[in-house]
Design goal:
The chain is an alpha/beta fold and about 550 residues long. The chain folds into four domains: about 80 residues, Orthogonal Bundle (Arc Repressor Mutant, subunit A); about 220 residues, 3-Layer(aba) Sandwich (Rossmann fold); about 120 residues, no CATH class; about 30 residues, no CATH class. Helix content is about 30%, strand content about 20%. The protein contains 15 helices and 20 strands. The strands form five sheets. The protein has an eight-stranded mixed β-sheet with strand order 5-4-3-6-7-8-9-10, with helices on both faces. Helix 1 packs across helix 4, helix 6 runs parallel beside helix 7 and helix 6 packs across helix 13.
Length: about 550
């Protein structure tokens, strides 16, 4: 009995692509669609697709340009024969498994249309009027993705200035800029967006205003506050990419957890003197930031958090010396990685790029994922509630939670709630009821004897508390936050979605739209001179999306 040969799944995919090359759907020099699109088109895994592309590359039918994509090669007599061989071998094969299948496509009869690049048609821009026109010539550039992208930039110092400048020049449509610091004269030596007249102003506000000046087509929003406690998770949830331009470990750890919880990629950067690094973290792909912490770093965090109130004020007292040159280099790498993520291009998640500006050497290192890393947790289904943080009470939330999860379920806060401070020396107790972020270390000392008081705190609400009438915002819950609740068996997640309009609008520094209303004529008679004066009344309506205007 003769054996019946059967093509593998990767050979079938390669055969279909080879057939499209022979049919001139893909012509020489054309770029194939992105891997993500081909995976979706053929219904196969990424590894199967890559095997197919490797077969085509080995047969000289395509050229793989790393970091750019796959292009149809110039066909020779030998490669044409190879294309027919691959296509004929896969022809008529129907391969099915439980996990992967090749859809059978019907090819309509009739005359062939002129072949075009299926991923991106050729558009000739007007370079006199279109500020982003030259980007249209980039093979992988997708204008719609860029203009619709939402990018959060955390930190508006030297590194943040470079990233913001790059994002604006590239035409990223929506920027959310976060920083809690103000501008000082020393910032001017390494921050391209700041001026001497900006001294004392909020970094985030000035950076957002200058971004809008550079490219009026982008939409910007700024937040002057602490990213660890003052931004709702619903904001992170709606971002495409998060770029961290931070200078301390605590903030990075918080951003890492928020991004992982919301299943969002983030790009981290760090600089000091001639040295810098950049790295991309993608939930579920390799190590995250917390995985990279050394034992010494973990011990430092433990010591700093042994007194929680002290930890809030002990972020980084010193200043890290930097130069505008290293900020420009690392900021450019971060911006490029963010652009690749927006375009669904492959990135090396869980790896770090080290740059030594003293020797101009660059190398990459892979981090090892930690199996039991505390950051490795992604929120499940999120229920959007028509509630606001400033009007919803603990009692309101508990009613919903107990309805969904039962009377034993509890509400869990992201940060500790300080209930009271107790002085053993004076035997006095002061009720606080504030989030830890709003209680300073000096407040922890007894006003009578000066001794450090004991802190009573909690991060869960059961329903037995005497302060259930307090609103969520009064207890440190930011707008558009996502709250966690759990019982013995499961977690549930609730978003305060009614805050969306105020929490995420991207409309700072928008020019107001002026509309003229009806213009009635008012007649004023002068009986002495027997004349009639006609006065036109003009009503002007100013519309603006900026809630601060």
């Amino acid at each position: 009995m003769d054996t019946i040969s059967r093509s593998s799944l990767s050979e079938i995919v390669a055969g279909k692509i080879a057939g499209m090359i022979l049919d001139e759907v893909y012509r020489s020099g054309y770029q194939l669609p992105a891997e993500r699109d081909l995976v979706k088109q053929f219904g196969v895994s990424r590894s199967t697709l890559r095997e197919a592309l490797k077969l085509l590359e080995d047969s000289a039918l395509i050229e793989v340009r790393h970091g750019v994509g796959s292009f149809v090669a110039e066909l020779t007599e030998v490669s044409l024969l190879k294309a027919h061989e691959i296509a004929d071998k896969a022809a008529g094969q129907n391969y099915n498994t439980e996990s992967e299948s090749i859809p059978i496509e019907e090819v309509p009869e009739g005359p062939k249309r002129l072949p075009v690049n299926p991923e991106k048609p050729l558009i000739i821009p007007n370079l006199q009027k279109d500020r982003l026109g030259t980007f249209s010539f980039i093979s992988w550039w997708e204008r719609e993705k860029v203009e619709n992208a939402k990018v959060m930039i955390i930190g508006a110092g030297a590194l943040g200035n470079e990233v913001i400048k790059n994002m604006v020049l590239m035409g990223i449509g929506n920027l959310y800029i976060v920083d809690f610091d103000t501008i000082e004269m020393a910032n001017l030596s390494r921050s391209v967006l700041f001026r001497e007249s900006d001294k004392g102003r909020k970094k985030a506000e000035v950076a957002a205003a200058r971004a809008k000046e550079i490219n009026p087509n982008v939409h910007v929003q700024y937040m002057h506050g602490d990213v660890t406690t003052e931004i709702g998770l619903g904001v992170f949830r709606r971002m495409d990419v998060i770029v961290g331009c931070l200078d301390n470990r605590e903030a990075r750890l918080a951003v890492n957890r928020f991004a992982y919880w919301m299943n969002k990629p983030w790009v981290d950067g760090a600089i000091q003197e001639f040295f810098g690094l950049a790295r991309v973290f993608v939930p579920g792909e390799g190590a995250c930031f917390e995985c990279t912490l050394t034992e010494q770093a973990r011990r430092d965090l433990s010591i700093r958090y042994s007194c929680p109130l002290l930890a809030r004020e002990n972020v980084l007292l010193g200043k890290v010396p930097t130069t505008p040159t290293i900020a420009s280099i690392i900021g450019a790498i971060q911006s490029q990685e963010a652009l690749k993520l927006i375009h669904n291009k492959p990135v090396e998640a869980g790896k770090v790029i080290h740059f030594n500006g003293m020797t101009n050497e660059m190398h990459k290192t892979s981090y090892t994922p930690v199996d039991d890393c505390e950051s490795h947790w992604t929120y499940g289904k999120i229920t959007e509630l028509p509630l606001r943080a400033d009007t919803t009470t603990l009692e309101d939330m508990l009613k919903i939670i107990h309805r969904d999860l039962g009377p034993q379920a509890v509400l869990e806060f992201d940060q500790e709630l300080i209930l009271s401070l107790y002085c053993r020396n004076c035997q006095t107790k002061e009720d606080i009821l504030q989030p830890i972020s709003q209680v300073g270390f000096n407040h922890a000392h007894c006003p009578s004897c000066g001794m450090l008081r004991e802190t009573e705190m909690t991060h869960t609400i059961t329903g037995e508390e005497p302060f259930l009438n307090r609103t969520l915002s009064s207890l440190g819950i930011p707008k558009l936050h996502i709250l966690r609740a759990y019982n013995a068996d499961q977690y549930a997640f609730y978003e305060l979605t009614a805050d969306l309009e105020n929490a995420l609008h991207f409309s700072h520094f928008q020019k107001p739209v002026i509309k003229l209303g009806d213009i009635p004529v008012i007649k004023i008679s002068n009986p002495e001179e027997k004349t009639v004066i006609k006065v036109r009344e003009t009503r002007i309506k100013i519309e603006s999306d900026d809630p601060d205007q």
